[in-house]
C-alpha cells in the first residue's frame, strides 16, 4: 500500500473551487466519452452522510475498452476494463473510491480523501488526522499549477495559467511568485491511498498509479483555473442542471457517438 498527500495550492476561495471543480469534471467527461467508451453516470443524488452532513453521492462507471490497444482488448478478461468510481461530495470534504469489482475485486482500490481550506498555502502537517503508523508511511507532494513541470502531452496554450487571464474574475495571468502574492488563496489536501494486490506487480503498479495521479491533479487543476471565465459566478443550482444535461449527453455519446482517444496500436 502506498499513501501520498498531494497539496494543491489554488487561486480560489473554497466556494469558487467547489463550483469550478464540478463544472470542469463535467467538461472533461464529455471530452472523453464516445463510441462505447467513457463515463456512465449510474447515480447522482443528494444524501445525508452523518458526520459530514448532506452532500452529493455519485456512482460512475468508466468504460475503457477502446482506450487500450486492440490486442489488449482481445486478451483482457471480461470486466477488467471497467472501473467504478463512488464519491461522497460533502464539501469541503470529498471522498472518492475507485475499484474494479468485476475483475480485481478487493485486489485493487484507490481512495482519495480531499479537504479544502481557505487562506491556506499547504503548510498544515496532518490535516487528515492520520494515526502515527500511517503518518510514517505518508509522503507529501506539493503541486504548483504554475511552476511545476507538466507532461508535454497535456499542454495547450489555452490551459497555461502563465498565459491566461480571467476577465470575469479579474485574475491572472499567474506569475512565478503567485503563491505568495495571490488573493484569494486555498489548498486542496488530497490524501491518496493505493492498493494493488497482485503478486510480483504490486510495487510497480502502485508507483505507476501515484505517478498518474500527480499528472492528473496537475493537468486538471491547470484547466480549472484556465476555464475560470466559463464557470465563474455559477451557482450550485446551475451545476446540478449542467450535470443532468451532461449525464444525458454522455449516455448518448457513449452508446452512439464517435470514438474519442482510441488507440489501435
Automatic annotation (TrEMBL):
InterPro entries: PI_transfer, PI_transfer_N, START-like_dom_sf. One of its GO terms (cellular component) is cell periphery. Residues 1-247 form the Phosphatidylinositol transfer protein N-terminal domain. GO terms for molecular function: phosphatidylcholine binding; phosphatidylcholine transporter activity; phosphatidylinositol binding; phosphatidylinositol transfer activity. This is Phosphatidylinositol transfer protein N-terminal domain-containing protein. It comes from Amphimedon queenslandica (Sponge).
